[in-house]
């Protein structure tokens, strides 16, 4: 019988944080560890070379507790009681029976008894963005997003016994289904043609006739995992003797080469036109007479020359492709899409999140000021918490820390730094997860080094290796004693 | 020495709820009690006849704890650490010195140490909408809004010793200043002319030269109250030996006869035009030659007749004035502006907020269904929680329960009921705070009565006199035993 | 047998202009004369006291040429060939048969042969805004608008024999139907209830069943006139032996007391709130509990007091009613809606439209400068060509001269004058149709007088009593000789 | 002494039309002839190989009448009197003196005396879009646009003696300056760097210091021509003894390879993503860590592989480039930008513009119906009058005929035809300038052939070789005789 890799009663992120010393903490390592657990016993290397974006993966674990800690029906009940969950916005109640998919959302708030009433009457319940309400889902997803280098989302699905909530369809994301409670019978089907493979947009609902024979037909039990790529058609129902609860972790939405090319190509063309006279020259005076669909079958020599010229210009485009700037734009988008990190107590104590001035109720005054010194060891608080982007003639730092847990509830957050300070930020990025001293930052003068360090610190982006001592505390605490 | 009317260490709303049996709870009574405390020892009758909207009121209590429970600098520190408070949106840091008012907000999140740094450097701190973050402020304001029949808001002001945060100005609200910590020196000035009395919009900043001699010059200490009407110019600074913390409770913004008239008058005119031929008749063919500012001084007889005709039409307007419908629109606006109520444990247990189906983790199933019976005593959960409005040929119930604690963060919430059910809702409104049975609702059949009762119950608007027993629990619980 | 009042072979406006000396020209007189002809032999006094806005008027003239000069099918043919007339925008082809109203417009330009093809196939042709293309229609309407003091429009209707183009309906304008060619059978029906009398908006299409028995059933022949008020239901068809052509002249759209009240009432309320403390006082704290539709039948004394208070405030509104300013707003709208005037040769020669600097091709230079002298007699070029309006703390002159012949194709045109110059403009307005000298304008200094006179002259709004002599022409022309 | 190629007293377009038989008329030939005259005695072949988009061309003709027929100051005076010319919209009055460029437009209508007053005071006058008001300018430009295969525009510049109206600057068009009256002194300057050559957008104003030494310094006299490419800096002033009038004919605005590429490239990428799996595959999981400006100098092997992959995808793009569809989009834009053609009397009589049903005033009925027969010879009325475009799963014919003379005053005009009819339209396009019979159109049945021919005829796009005889006229005209 298998052993869980991590004692999942305590969620792995928390486990990692508590086991390690804070100054050793590396969000990249933690992300890797969490993903390893997710697909265990399959190895990542094998997963990414043989399965990822290619075929489904089923892991039957025979260990019901393996996925514990993610979510439970009990937590759903609590969320419905405590949070302002709105039908149609945060939660859906749906059925799929006799080939018909229906949504039954009443208007207004989803009070627990109303949701349970629908559930008792055979409706499936889908909780959207559970990371907004569930601390653990938030924590897991915020760690996984560092692993995938792009947004990681989730939905929760609760299905009563003997029912199905959704019609056969495909999604636009890589899906990791983690079975949490009860059982669910899944059927997966191949994309029906090449154009549907790794489909860019989700499909509509299919009928049984549309989808043919399943390529996988399996019963998931608690602890099991099912992965399948975007474009794979799927449907799932519950046996008559058991409800089902699972979380679907999703990623790689709009994160393809084509998406990056959409950043690169229009800008490349603008640059080419600005810089290359060939692109600014006038078209042949009479090209409209031999070009156009009407002339498609003509073998006019001017037409051929015209087509060769287009070929030559397309080839030239490559040399103007702003690949790195486009990647930074993708990175900026990723930062905006991301959840803010769940900071550990230790991280808080070593950063502005938990250290520094506070109100002293006894003394009726502010106490606890701290100051970065030249020899204070600092590092970026999490690998994925910021991105340095050149934009509109500015150097900007985009960061995740002030994002809401609700997707895109805040605008992209950034601040500008001077071009001179960029190497200092790069130094911190490359040094991660190691600490460097303020004084070691590659800038000319100490005041400049301190200034950029303070700017990052005050945005919550830096942590020290241990909690800084308050400059005003030693004496006063003495007095207290 | 004065005694506090209510032991305010325990906030009065909570006190009231815990002392009384829930089925006796009357939100109107509680609201009255809270307002009595607020202005104690002044009596409400005297207050409203002699002071309200007329002159300032100062209550020196010599009892520092009198306003306890509202808020503290300690709570501000906690909020800054826990919530995503944003400079310029939720909080401001300001100064007023040498006659110059400045706002010093940096961009981004107001981490506690940054706020305290500004405070140490002489900035005043204003926390907007503290009800969004402070449970007690939320509770007090949500009770007071039932008293005033319109939105009640608040700001928190924290000022360091020896400073002033704001220039002399007037506000567009009735202000109740409750001194919480430290001391503050206030100066009040009369409106400078009749047009400024009960001003409809807040003023800009004044200079000392603008405002003349104060009509009140006083030092507030913890426990004290200062009330003044909208339009009264004021400024306040701290002595050099003490910081100051106060909450300003505000109400009656855009709640004047004129505001109501703005609802009535345009609609009255539309109705008159639709129903009264006099309004649809053509203007005199040549009126443009004797009317208009150019002809203002003319005593042309046609001109006089024209003016008499206008007078006659203006008089006729009154008979088309939709006063009740306009009041309902004001009531609907009030419902949208309002905070949701802070329900007591007892209220929750007697309503959908705490009773009814829940997930039974041991049995892995839903349990606890309850049902309104013909003889179940019911009442509206709070007097001010809903408003019945006729609108767009529908009967609608607007309600506060799904409002966010953040002002206008949700759209107005309503649902439609059938015209036949309106008398049943009216019956419940008039019966408040008494319970009536489902069967006593003035509708024809029991299924109709049950349907409207269930509709209200499922929106969280009804409570029963005691927690209903689950219909599925008796037997199963027996089995458990 | 009747004699035409005016020899209409020569259109009356042109006739008037040519008969009179230009310095005697009075657009008010001409407008009166044209309207007298229109309804002849009915007298205006009788028309306006007994018929206008009350009942239909039929004038059978037995003089086929009486309406000549307005329009002809021949002119329609020319317009279709010369102008870019677009189906659905400028022209409609329609049928009404077997109780069904249809529009048959193809997309694109209405080339004459296409229109005639539809006509041959039984379609009625409606030309919208003929004043844009027909010089005479423009001239007549621009004169009539001075008579009615508001916009006067027109449509042309051409109907093939034995057909009907439109279903029974009512319009939102006072209609004057002038039969031009062929015959048309008209049926008029009373408004079906009081609310439809002088209806504010046009109706949809009716069936025969909707409209009952006609109150008038008549055959129009060339030279005849039919007038009926807005709200009167009508339909018309052609006999099998004759096509029909008529023009419908329309006026008094949105020109009722109610329309003026819509200008007055909201502003009156804003002024009352600004100036009258009663309007700024707060509403009673608990009014929402006794007001509103729910309480409609209550005889609560507070409720009665509340209603009395509303009555009192409504009455007070009258004293804040800005009647003259509202009339000026109506006048401004009328100026924007109006056609520009058709100036006579004489008017052109006595104004900037025809006098002043011009390019001298022989001399290759500019010649012909003219100058207003203190003793130059001046008057406004047409009574209705401008309106003086106080607005946004400015004195503005709105004017029709730069309006397009296409309705609202230009923005309202105005220019600002100094407040000091307003009496001078008023002087010119009151003096009309008489001339006054520049020097007689009521301003302090001659340069000021000349400045305002020049400003009006350069906008084309002033004319002199005779063509001014060029200051550079006398000597130079002598030299030429 | 030179002889004019065409007797330009009679404008060349009119001359061409009157000389040739209408059935021989070929708009391409006429366009060529007009351009030949324009640059005469330079030969087009030489012009396009050596000068076009490369260097300025000066033709001193010593024949003052050579450019006659385009425009004159006399015509400007007439336009100002007749048309509603608005300052700032249709005309500008400007000065450039002491290095300062100023616009002096007053608001409102540009009455002739006001314009001449500014002119007398040293202002230059620029008339925009003279083709809207001048028949000849319209005619010449509408012919030239067929030559250039893209929009041809014009401005008129009138400058008083001893002045300059504009600062040194470059434009975004190929400019042909035709001197019409008086003299003008021009100075041209090279683009200051490679990026300014054939500049895509017009420049701001330069100072003398910015522009250096002129590459051309010349006095233009009536009959002369000056051509220079976009991006060439220029300025011009008048000698003290002569005013100047010239027209600048402009073309090739936004008509470069780059503009075409902007049509091609985004669509190519969308097609590639839809059709090519490589573009839909996910990005490498950790690419954000080695890509981006921060990593620009890294020689990480993954980075190199990433860049190679981009190169490979860019190369693949070419095979998805929709060149013909993009050219059709350019053609559609050209059709929308174009002036409608000025049809000759002959063209009118052989098309719907002048032939077909008309109102017979004597008979009071419609006469003159014509019908395309199987053997009727037809051709497209002008080569450039339409474009066949595949768009949104439709085959559409975009056409210029309903465009206004005012630039973009109408929406793009098109109608849909069936896919089956496309070859018939192509047949007509390829046959131009020859006639083909209706029956020869490549469609299956005669009714289909007649239907598409009628559709084109009714849109005014077809002409017959001679005026068709009316089917209803023979007998009736006999009777008339």
Describe the structure.
4 copies of one chain form a homotetramer. The first copy, chain A, is an alpha+beta fold. The first copy, chain A, has helices at residues 12-19, 27-39, 44-51, 73-82, 112-120, 135-148, 208-211, 257-275, 277-280, 287-290, 301-317, 323-337, 345-349, 422-431, 446-458, 473-480, and strands spanning 57-59, 91-97, 100-103, 124-128, 152-159, 174-182, 184-189, 216-220, 225-228, 233-237, 244-251, 358-360, 365-367, 377-380, 386-391, 394-399, 414-417, 436-437, 462-464. An 8-stranded antiparallel sheet of chain A has the order 1-9-6-11-5-4-2-3. In chain A, a hairpin with a 4-residue loop joins strand 12 (358-360) and strand 13. In chain A, helix 2 crosses helix 6 and helix 8 (257-275) packs across helix 12 (323-337). Chains in contact: A-B, A-D, B-C, C-D. At the A-D interface, helix 8, helix 9, helix 10, helix 11 and helix 12 of A face helix 8, helix 9, helix 10, helix 11 and helix 12 of D.
List its salient traits.
homotetramer, 481 residues, alpha+beta, eight-stranded antiparallel β-sheet, three-stranded antiparallel β-sheet, 16 helices, 19 strands, disordered N terminus, disordered C terminus
